[in-house]
Amino acid sequence: QGRMWAYTIGFTVLPHVGGFFGWFINRKEIPVWYEKLKKPSWCPPRRIFPVAWTVLYTGMGYASYLIWNDLGGCSSKAIVPLGLYGAQLALNWAWPLFFFGARNLKMALIDILCLDGLVIGTMCSWYRINKIATLLMVPYLGWLAMATCLTIRIWKDNPEHFFYKS
């Protein structure tokens, strides 16, 4: 029983690790560089992002635990559903490195478009396994839709930042 709690906590915390690392690496770029970018009026205030990502990472982490648990751990049945999850998580963690770290809006845009597809693929692969886990990913997909539109808009409105650090 205690071991299951450890797995639950581990899976739930895992997405936060990359999110925290991305924030830590880029924390100085956000107030300096990001504030200078042209952004649409519907861009959420900066203070919303850590709250949103805490909720989203917790939900997706717990959802991944549900899938892992339902498939009996690291079994052959878990390769595709958890592989898709891992791939989308890697792209999620890479986005801030492209956007803030490299200031490469084109790569950030490519990353988030691929991320959208992997999240949809993850959810499709999870649906037959655990509908609750799939539903826990819906807010994440919604936030990604907004983030994708925001990335597209920032990319279009800031052509001087298409390819490389300025």
From TrEMBL:
Question: Could you tell me which InterPro entries the record lists for this protein?
Answer: TspO/MBR-related_sf (IPR038330), TspO_MBR (IPR004307)
Keyword list, A-Z? Membrane, Transmembrane, Transmembrane helix
Q: Does the keyword Ion transport apply?
A: no
The portions of this protein that span the membrane are: 6-26, 47-67, 79-101, 135-155
Cellular component annotations (GO), alphabetically ordered: mitochondrial outer membrane
Taxonomy, superkingdom? Eukaryota
Task: Give the location in the cell.
Answer: Membrane
**What Pfam families does the record tag this protein with?**
TspO_MBR
The way it spans or sits in the membrane comes to: Multi-pass membrane protein
Q: Does the keyword Signal apply?
A: no
The Swiss-Prot or TrEMBL record describes its family as follows: Belongs to the TspO/BZRP family.
Q: What is this protein called?
A: Translocator protein
Q: Which organism is it from?
A: Pygoscelis adeliae
